[in-house]
Amino acid sequence: MALSSRVKGLASVANVANPYGNQDLFIAKNVSERLGEFVSRSDKDTKPFARQVDAWWLAIGIGVKMGRRTPLPPETVKYNDGGILSSDPWRITHLEALALAEEGADVINSPGQVIRIASEYANTGLQWLIDEMLGEAEPTLTVINSIAEYLPT
């Protein structure tokens, strides 16, 4: 395959449209109050997550693996908006694949529903993450070791 063909293919991945840019991303208030302990505020931090969206993303995967969607409680905190997904366009494709698997093709026409599905899986996974990391001297290592039980053998 010629280099120009491969570059064209890469460019199409980078130009994924983001229909979620105007969707607010929420997490449970009680999770938000604890999550800050595990999200870096500078390049010098050694916390497990560089950004809240990274914790949210791992939590989605954990929730999916657990097979459980937990609706967000009434008390939530907006931690970002869907515009953050443009920084990693592959996330958009993954969100849509997850929503398609859950509810079929019509869900793609409802950005709020796609985000709700992801948020419910994330809500399950975030609680698990917080429970695993609280009180640990090395929360990153704890998560790496604990998540092994959810990986295929």
Topology of this structure?
Elements: H1 3-14, E1 24-28, H2 29-35, H3 52-66, E2 76-81, H4 90-103, H5 111-133, H6 139-147
Antiparallel strand pairs: 1-2
Helix pairs in contact: 3-5, 4-5
Strand count, sense and closure of the main sheet?
Answer: 2 strands, antiparallel
Strands across the major sheet, in which order?
1-2
How does the helix and strand content classify structurally? mainly alpha
Broad shape:
globular
**Count of β-strands:** 2
Low-confidence stretches: 1-13
Average pLDDT, all residues: 86
Q: Calculate the terminal CA-CA distance, rounded to whole Å.
A: 35 Å
Tally of helical runs? 6
Note the run of SSEs as H and E: HEHHEHHH
Radius of gyration: 17 Å
- How much of the sequence is in beta strands? 5-15%
Helix content range of the residues, please?
Answer: 40-55%
Features:
52% helix; single chain; mainly alpha
3D architecture notes:
- The chain has 153 residues and is mainly alpha-helical.
- 52% of the residues lie in helices and 7% in strands.
- The chain has six helices and two strands.
- The chain has helices at residues 3-14, 29-35, 52-66, 90-103, 111-133, 139-147, and strands at 24-28, 76-81.
- A two-stranded antiparallel sheet has the order 1-2.
- 29% of the residues are buried.
- Mean pLDDT is 86; it is low at 1-13.
